[in-house]
Automatic annotation (TrEMBL):
Source organism of the structure: Ramlibacter rhizophilus
Gene3D superfamilies: Periplasmic binding protein-like II, Winged helix-like DNA-binding domain superfamily/Winged helix DNA-binding domain
PANTHER family (alphabetical): HTH-TYPE TRANSCRIPTIONAL REGULATOR LEUO-RELATED (PTHR30118), TRANSCRIPTIONAL REGULATORY PROTEIN (PTHR30118:SF15)
InterPro entries named in the record: LysR-type_TF, LysR_HTH_N, LysR_subst-bd, WH-like_DNA-bd_sf, WH_DNA-bd_sf
Keywords: DNA-binding, Transcription, Transcription regulation
Entry GO MF terms: DNA binding; DNA-binding transcription factor activity
Family: Belongs to the LysR transcriptional regulatory family.
Domain HTH lysR-type residues, every copy: 12-69
Name the record gives this protein: LysR family transcriptional regulator
Pfam families the UniProt entry points to: HTH_1, LysR_substrate
C-alpha cells in the first residue's frame, strides 16, 4: 500500500530542504556547511537522511565537486521556489537582526568590484553583523537575473551594462575614467597629448574577453582610434603588466586607479579625450524586495558608498 502525500510529508523533516538547497547551490559539503553555519558532519548526516527519503544518491563525487543526479536536478526548481517562499513570506515577518545573524551574504561582482567595493563593505559588515560571512561570485551578465531570482546571489554590484529591466536598480555613486601609466615611464609627463594617447600601446579590459567589447569602449565612441596591444578580461593584472612593460598605458575607472596608485607602481593622468561619467549600482530581484535581510544589506551598502557621491570621493 503506497503512502499518501500527507503521510510522506510527515516523514520529511523540512529542515532537510535547507540542506538540499545549500548542497544544490554549493555542490560541496564543506561550502554548504559554511553557508548554513553548521558542521560538515551535520551536513553529511542530513544528506544521508535525504538519500533515504528520496531513495536516490542525489549527489555523486566528481573531480569538480559533488554533481547532482537527475533526480536532484528535478528537485532543484521546486526546492528553490519553496526556500524563496519561506524567506519572503514566512521569515519576512520575523525580521532580521544583523548582530545575531549567521547568514552568508553573496555578492555578484567583477574583480574590479572586489577591489573597490569589498574593503569598505567588509569593514561595515564586520561591525554590524559579526556572525555573517561573505562570498563573491563572477558570472556572465546573462546569468545574473536567474541567480538573483533564485536567492543564490543577494546583490549584484557594479556597472552592469544591459542589466535585465526586471531587476531593481539603485545608484551608489558616479565614477569616471582616468589613464594610468607606469611610475617608471619617463616618456609621458604630467599631461598626455592626444597624439601620445593614440600612438602609445594600450591594455584594454573586456569582461567578455572578446575584441570590440572593451570596458572603456567609450573612447572609440568618441572617435579616437587607439593602438590596442593587449585585451584581457581581468582588471587586476593591469598594474602588473604596466610595471613589467613600462611603455604600456591603460584607461580604467578612477576608483580602481586610486587603488592601484596606493602601491606606487602607476601614475594617474587625465585622458586627453572627454569621457562621460558612468554609474555604479546595486541590483536585486523583485522576489527579495521585501526580504528583511536583503533590505538591511542594500541599505548598508547604500550608506557605505554615500561618501563616493562625487568622482574621487573616498
Amino acid at each position: 500500500m503506497s503512502l499518501t502525500p500527507e503521510t510522506r510529508l510527515k516523514q520529511l523533516d523540512l529542515n532537510l530542504l535547507t540542506v538540499l538547497d545549500a548542497l544544490l547551490r554549493e555542490q560541496s559539503v564543506t561550502r554548504a556547511a559554511d553557508s548554513l553555519g553548521t558542521t560538515q558532519s551535520a551536513i553529511s548526516h542530513s544528506l544521508g537522511r535525504l538519500r533515504a527519503f528520496f531513495d536516490d544518491s542525489l549527489f555523486v563525487k566528481a573531480s569538480q565537486g559533488m554533481v547532482p543526479t537527475r533526480k536532484a536536478e528535478l528537485l532543484r526548481q521546486p526546492v528553490v521556489a519553496i526556500m524563496a517562499a519561506i524567506r519572503n513570506e514566512v521569515l519576512a515577518e520575523a525580521g532580521f537582526d544583523p548582530a545575531r545573524s549567521r547568514r552568508a551574504f553573496v555578492f555578484a561582482m567583477t574583480d574590479v568590484g572586489e577591489l573597490v567595493f569589498l574593503p569598505p563593505l567588509l569593514t561595515q559588515l564586520r561591525k554590524a553583523a559579526p556572525g555573517c560571512t561573505v562570498r563573491t561570485v563572477q558570472v556572465p551578465i546573462e546569468q545574473i537575473e536567474g541567480l538573483l531570482a533564485s536567492g543564490e546571489v543577494d546583490l549584484a554590484l557594479g556597472s552592469i551594462k544591459s542589466a535585465p529591466e526586471g531587476l531593481y536598480r539603485q545608484r551608489l555613486f558616479m565614477n569616471t575614467f582616468v589613464t594610468i601609466v607606469s611610475a617608471s615611464n619617463t616618456s609621458i609627463g604630467e599631461n598626455m597629448t592626444l597624439e601620445q594617447f593614440r600612438r602609445t600601446p594600450q591594455v584594454v579590459v573586456s569582461l567578455e574577453g572578446k575584441p570590440g567589447t572593451a570596458y572603456d569602449n567609450l573612447i572609440e565612441e568618441q572617435g579616437v582610434e587607439r593602438n590596442v596591444f593587449l585585451t584581457t578580461p581581468h582588471f587586476l593584472v593591469v598594474p602588473l603588466l604596466l610595471e613589467r612593460q613600462p611603455d604600456l598605458i591603460a584607461t580604467v575607472p578612477m576608483e580602481l586607479a586610486n587603488a592601484f596608485a596606493r602601491y606606487g607602481t602607476v601614475r594617474i593622468l587625465k585622458p586627453p579625450v572627454e569621457l562621460p561619467q558612468f554609474a555604479l549600482d546595486q541590483h536585486w530581484h523583485p522576489r527579495f524586495h521585501n526580504d528583511p535581510a536583503v533590505v538591511w544589506l542594500r541599505t548598508m551598502v547604500k550608506q557605505t558608498f554615500e561618501q563616493y557621491a562625487e568622482p574621487g570621493g573616498g
